[in-house]
Automatic annotation (TrEMBL):
Comp. bias intervals (Low complexity): 358-370, 401-420, 429-440, 563-572, 598-612
Coiled-coil annotated residue ranges, if any: 200-287
Domain of life the protein comes from: Eukaryota
Alphabetic keyword roster: Cell membrane, Coiled coil, Membrane, Transmembrane, Transmembrane helix
Membrane topology: Single-pass membrane protein
Name of protein: Proton pump-interactor 1
Family: Belongs to the plant Proton pump-interactor protein family.
Protein location: Cell membrane
Transmembrane segments annotated in the record for this chain: 645-667
Ranges of compositional bias, category Polar residues: 9-39
Biased composition (Basic and acidic residues): 454-463, 551-562
Species of origin: Dunaliella tertiolecta
Amino acid sequence: MAVPEMSNDIESLDQQPAANGAVPSTTTKDSNASRGTSSALWLVRIPKPAYDEGVLQSRQAEFKATVDRLREYNEKGASKGGKGKNAKRAEQRDLRARMNEARRLKDESDPEFQMKANRIKELKKYRQGFVDQIKEIMSHVQGTDLRSEAALDERIRQMESQIASGGISLREEKMVVQNVSRLQALRGKLREFDSSQEQLQYAEGEAQKLKTVLAGMESEFSILKAERDAAYGVVQDIQKKIQDCSKELEEMDEEEKEMTKAKNDAYEALQKAREEKDASMRDYRENRRFALEIRDMVAAGQAEQAKVLAAAQVEEWLGKLTSDTHLRTDYTKLWSEQRKYMVSELLPSSSLSAQQEAAAKAKAAAPSKQAKGKKGEAAAPARPSTAEQAQSLIETLMAQAKTEAAAAESGAKAPRFGDAPEGGEEDQAAAQEAAKPSGAYVPPHSKEGGAAGADKKKEDAPRFVENPNAAAMKNKVPLPRQYLEQEEAFVPPVDLLAKNESESQAAVDEAQRRAQLREEQRIKAAEAEERKRRRAEAAEKKKVAAAAAAKRLEQERQERDASAMAAAAAASRQDATDESAGEGMSGREEGSQQVAPAKQQSSGSAKRAAAAAKRKEQQALANAAAKRPKARGPLRTVKKRLQDYQIGIAVGIALALVFLLVVYAYLYR
């Protein structure tokens, strides 16, 4: 097993030990002897772990690409002329404002529309009442072409004349008799129809007037309905556009969410790669931090404590390297890949191969430099090599550490780096001579020899001093007064002025457009208000006229009811008189049938009596029809129909008797 090399360099503790154990000759010569001395201080240096930087760089590139893509997307959406989310949201707000305006206009026209619709509905209902009344009156003559009682009497007279002529057969005569009976049954309906002629004419006239009024109102209503449908169509169109905008915004939100998710995933991958790198570099960084702490402790005069910590660190790592095969293999492999020799990072040319190459180059360049130099000029002094400087520095620092350790043991104050010892220049020279190592290297160009060489090395040694620029960084430099007093006016660029001018012009145009739109809306609202006022006045006038017409109709109805009551009383009295007259006539006819030997005389008297009764009945019916009310209630209609039915029965009986008398006279003449 290759034992890891340990460093006893106080200043350059970050030197890396060789993997194969080969070290420069200047340090391996006394290495075994120095390990046993009290001044030796050894550390185990950890090689930098092998980490693939390409993984971290690829993660950083991916994260940067996602961030750039998201930034470009946001900038495109935030641009004024772009088609991003901001432009789409502005379009959606404009559409919503237009939809609200269209809805407002539609809502303003709703009361007028509803008023027209309700008025048309009322008029249609009122006209339907007249139509129903006309249908009820016309139902009396349904199924017949007769329209008056006179026409009925004329047709019955014609049928009776056919029977009286005797030119038809018995079967046809029976059919004629049935037709006469059917026509007699229609007499009551024809009387009602005759009595309702005035009411029918009034109902037809009112229905026609209402039809004309409805035609005008429906034409106006159709215009309002067309405007309302157009407004509704505009609202629907705008609402569809708003839905499309909302859908596009949702798609943009989804796209932005995907970009944000990709950015977060890339950031998580980058953080994971950084954590993996930090985990792999943890031991290496801890080792470097420990080396720096040891160096600071030695510089602060705590060499013994540093030595104890360093020894514990060496024991710990030797145990790890001897027990863990994989760790030992990685340790050896990494050091073999990184550095073949132990070389200070501060002195990168301190390896043996670098020294040999530098010496060969110096020998090859020596003749040419001498040839190029001036004649009689002295040769330049030889400069120490990098290895010699490193060795001299190491020996100087070791001597300094020994001096401080000896002073600490004797109780004297140990000199620090950069501090002059007490006792003047002679004591300082003596201390330097005592601290000079036995095998110290003296540069050949030194003029004063050993003591001067030690002084030169001491001067070259690093000192712990403060940064001279720190105080300058803390000072506040006041700003010259001319920069405070003279304030120049800011002159914007030409493109910025043009942009501001175009934006201001666009704002003015937009304000003018909005003002024009508001003026148009105000004019439309005023026109709508005027139309509404006119319609309200017309509706009020029509309402007053309708109330007056209703009042007049109510008065007429009351008058008709009063006259109907009087006519009903007179009709009832006339019906009683007719019934008594019919009974007397039937008694006389029976007596004549029993005792009248003269058939023609009795039949003539019977005809005269029937004609008189018929004329009297027609006169009574005409009087009742003239006095009959134009409008009847359900109860009065039932009573009247019952009376008509009774009258019809009485008339039928009388006609049957007359018919029998006629037949009797015809058969026995």
